[in-house]
Amino acid sequence: MKTANLGVLFLIELGALVAVAFWGFTLDVATPLAWLLGLGAPAVLIVLWGLFGSRKAAYKTRGAVRVGFEVLWFGAGVAALLLAGVWAWAAALALTCVLSKTLAVVWEQ
After folding, report:
1. CA dist., res. 7 & res. 51, Å (int)
2. Number of C-alpha atoms within 13 angstroms, CB side, residue 42?
3. How many other CB atoms sit within 10 Å of the CB of residue 32?
4. 57: which DSSP letter?
5. Global pTM?
6. Residue-wise pLDDT tens digits, 63-92
7. b/e map of 46-68 (b: 16 or more CB within 10 Å)?
């Protein structure tokens, strides 16, 4: 189960990136702007994860700061799905994040 949860943790990271890309590409805006947001929003999340969230992050976060960062980072994915109007997918991502992150804390992953 612990190994499976590590896989789920990785998949929710990808899910948040896909969610913000989906939001950007589905906005009712000019095509160049949709492309900019569809590619730019995930790029911003990737940079933030590289700086603060990854195991080899330049600026390690711990404790409450880490929790706050992850709430904002994964929350961006959930919010993007809500803004795109796909409520069920937003709820699924939010629930999966909460469950998987809770297990990761309990199992010290």
Report:
1. 22
2. 17
3. 8
4. -
5. 0.93
6. 999 999 999 999 999 999 999 999 999 999
7. eebbeebbeeeeeeeeeeeeeee
Q: How many CB atoms lie within 10 A of CB 5?
A: 18
Q: What is the rounded CA–CA span in Å between residue 100 and residue 92?
A: 12
The two structure tokens encoding residue 31 = 């095509």
84 phi, psi to nearest 5 deg: -80, -10
First to last CA, the chain: 12
Helices (H), the chain: 2-26, 31-48, 63-83, 87-106
What is d(CA 84, CA 19) in angstroms, rounded to the nearest whole number?
9
